[in-house]
Design goal:
There is one protein chain. The chain is built from 20 helices and 22 strands. The longest helix is centred in the middle third of the chain and has 34 residues. Helices cover 37% and strands 19% of the residues. Strands 1, 2, 3, 4, 5, 6, 7, 8 and 9 form a 9-stranded mixed β-sheet that branches. Strands 10-11-14-12-13 form a 5-stranded mixed β-sheet, with helices on both faces. The protein has a 5-stranded mixed β-sheet with strand order 16-15-17-18-22, sandwiched between helices. It starts with 19 loop residues before the first helix and ends in an 8-residue tail after the last helix. Helix 7 crosses helix 8 and helix 12 crosses helix 18. Helix 12 links the parallel strand 15 and strand 16. It has 651 residues and is an alpha+beta fold. The chain is globular and about 75 Å long. It folds into 4 domains: 213 residues, Histidine kinase-like ATPase, C-terminal domain (Heat Shock Protein 90, 2-Layer Sandwich); 165 residues, Ribosomal Protein S5, domain 2 (2-Layer Sandwich); 137 residues, Rossmann fold (3-Layer(aba) Sandwich), CATH 3.40.50.670; 33 residues, no CATH class.
């Protein structure tokens, strides 16, 4: 035990000055120090430029990734003031070096903005090894440089030579020109972040979302290293965003658009149902994507449920569900794509944290609920064919939900009657601690037998699959729980599925897909990934799902044995062995390995290679699963033809 600290006096009280709290606890301000936190920094700077558009002045935002990894964000707004603040230093320095300082606290500079606490730019400054702001205003260029949040020198006037050195030549900026705006350049601190390499795809997704939300604002992206370039400009707003999201899917209805404005707050929603089984609902507030939802999405869901239920009763459809059951909110989710967008004064915003992932304003729930309910009631009256198509879709989901519930109850009852809720095919581990337990989902009885013999029984459980499983992209939940292999998997995991799922009851915190390194193995792996993505997505977002990487070859030279995982690695090993006698074995399947080999290559935590499955872009992942695993052949054929040369057997 650590020795108790006897002294606790005023000397032990620390006061963190300036931006020190940010460097001490970066996660409090940007959520994490991994790639998500890294891109959160960029979002903070981009949204400052977007706020200039909300103020009615900016028409363009540029994002430039330099070869050295620095990022520059520019807008053509008013430019941050550089005159002296009442504190004695420039307004620019105050904004960039003090927490809770800025023009978004009701002073009149911004009516609507994504900023709330005045900490965005200053937090990024604190977490950057280098940070520079160039201000274009008054026909001059001003600048100030910082390092880890500390000012290197007072605000100065930039020369044309400096501007040409610092900024892309394509911009052709002139010091004495009439252009205005703010240009921020920063290099994330390697001492803070786990990785400092920005992802072009994530940046493009961020900019494209903003372009949809703010019609008339153009976004320009450049990656100097790869030469990649992208430009985004949309006039259709969130209706276009919903249409873009649903490309390649069969629509049940047109995109329904509703809006309402009252005083300083406005709400709009775009809604469309498709023939798919999954939901995609996004919420935004002042241009910020509230990834964890909030009161605006709560109000939307209540209104959607009531509007559809009321219209169903009105046209006499509501009596068709068995057992007198009514519609539920879950029935409205199947095939739903929606965007809910709220704009309101920045000083009124209440977010759960600085990362603005969840809106907490209670008054917004009622406002959005009223706007969506009124808008849908009107639309259903004016478009009865669309309304009826939506109701048919929702009632189909409701009947499937009731059938799935009955099937699940039957599965659970059967398990209880047999005396054990665990399937007989499962070779469970001895540990009952989920954090220390792992489940291998193995292809075939042969590989399952080797895995059961070669495993460490203390913490490794084995569940063999008897061949290919059901494609859950095309199946309702009632069919899924009746399918023997999936039923066994669901029971083995212990969390349930559908509306009774509880991820806190999951029995293993490492769920490892282990299939053969051939086409059939890749297909089974894809079917399992489809199941988890569609029906147990939090297994992925919690970081529980992995893919094992078994070796492709066994290379033996004398008593020296090497297991290699690619053709390139095999060629390198063979070349290294020289002219000696070499025995080369190509593993066509896991069943060809004996238990000792399977342990040594694929199951021993000290040497195995596991790849963790992540969802980096939920919308793009949804589109790809729909394309590859859905019923439409033409989009799948086009995708395969386009990406065939990029395909590998390695996930």
């Amino acid at each position: 035990m650590p020795k108790p600290i006897q002294s606790y006096t005023a000397k032990e009280i620390q006061v963190l000055e300036g931006l020190e709290p940010v460097r001490k606890r970066p996660g409090m301000f940007i959520g994490s120090t991994d790639t998500r936190g890294l891109h959160e920094c960029l979002r903070e700077i981009v949204d400052n430029s977007v706020d200039e558009s909300f103020a009615g002045v900016a028409k363009n935002v540029w994002v430039w990734i330099a070869k050295d990894g620095t990022v520059t964000v520019r807008d053509d707004g008013r430019g941050i003031p550089v005159d002296k603040h009442k504190t004695g230093v420039s307004a620019l320095e105050i904004t960039m070096t003090k927490l809770h300082a800025g023009g978004k606290f009701g002073g009149g500079a911004y009516k609507v903005s994504g900023g709330l606490h005045g900490v965005g730019a200053s937090v990024v400054n604190a977490l950057s090894s280098y940070f520079r702001v160039v201000i274009l205003r008054d026909n001059k260029a001003y600048f100030q440089e910082y390092q880890k949040g500390k000012v290197k020198a007072p605000v100065k006037t930039a020369s044309q030579e400096q501007i040409d050195k610092w900024l892309p030549s394509q911009w052709n900026l002139k010091v004495s020109g009439s252009e205005t705006g703010t240009i921020t350049t920063f290099q994330p601190d390697k001492d803070v972040f786990e990785a400092t390499q920005f992802d072009s795809q994530k940046i493009k997704t961020l900019l494209k979302d903003r372009a949809y939300l703010i019609p008339g604002l153009s976004f320009h992206f450049y990656d100097e290293g790869s030469g990649e370039e992208a430009h985004y400009y949309f006039e259709g707003g969130i209706k276009s965003l919903v249409s873009h999201t649903n490309r390649g899917k069969d629509a049940v209805s047109e995109v329904i658009y509703v809006s309402k404005e009252e005083g300083d707050i406005s709400a709009e929603a775009a809604i469309q149902y498709t023939d798919t089984y999954n939901e995609n609902v996004k919420g935004y507030v002042n241009g910020i994507n509230t990834t964890d939802g909030g009161t605006h999405l709560t109000g939307f869901r209540i209104a959607l449920t009531r509007a559809i239920s009321d219209y169903a009763k009105k046209v006499g459809v509501s009596e068709k569900l068995p057992g007198g059951n009514g519609l539920s909110g879950d029935d409205m989710k199947e095939g739903l794509t929606a965007v809910v967008y709220v704009k309101m004064p920045s000083e009124s915003l209440q977010f759960e944290s600085q990362t603005k992932a969840k809106l907490n304003n209670p008054e917004v729930q009622g406002f959005v609920q009223s706007a969506v309910k009124e808008g849908l009631d009107t639309y259903f009256e004016e478009h009865p064919n669309d309304a009826r198509s939506i109701i048919d879709k929702v009632f189909l989901a409701a009947r499937a939900r009731l059938a799935a519930r009955a099937a699940k109850e039957a599965v659970l009852r059967k398990g209880a009657l047999e005396g054990s809720s665990l399937p007989g095919t499962l070779a469970d581990c001895q540990s009952r601690d989920p954090e220390n337990s792992e489940l291998y989902i193995v292809e075939g009885e042969s590989a399952g037998g080797s895995a059961k013999q070669g495993r460490d029984r203390h913490f490794q459980a084995i569940l063999p699959l008897g061949g290919k499983i059901l494609n859950t992209e095309r199946a309702h939940l009632d069919k899924i729980v009746k399918f023997e292999e999936l039923k066994n998997l669901i029971i083995a995991l212990g969390a349930g599925v559908g509306d009774i799922i509880d991820y806190n009851k999951i029995r293993y915190h490492r769920i490892i897909i282990m299939t053969d390194a051939d086409v059939d193995g890749e297909h089974i792996k894809t079917l399992l990934l489809t199941f988890f993505f569609r029906h147990m997505p939090e297994v992925i977002t919690r970081g529980y799902l992995y893919v094992a990487l078994p070796p492709l070859y066994r290379v033996q030279s004398g008593k020296d044995v090497n297991f290699v995982y690619s053709d390139e690695e095999k060629d390198a090993v063979v070349k290294e062995k020289g002219n000696g006698k070499i025995t080369l074995q190509r593993y066509k399947g896991l069943g060809e390995m004996n238990p000792e080999q399977l342990w040594e290559t694929t199951m021993d935590p000290k040497v195995r290679i596991l790849k963790q499955v992540n969802i980096e872009d939920a919308e793009e992942s949804d589109r790809i699963f729909t394309t590859l695993m859905g019923e439409e052949v033409a989009p799948r054929k086009k995708f395969i033809q386009t990406h065939a040369k990029m395909a590998t057997l390695d996930i």
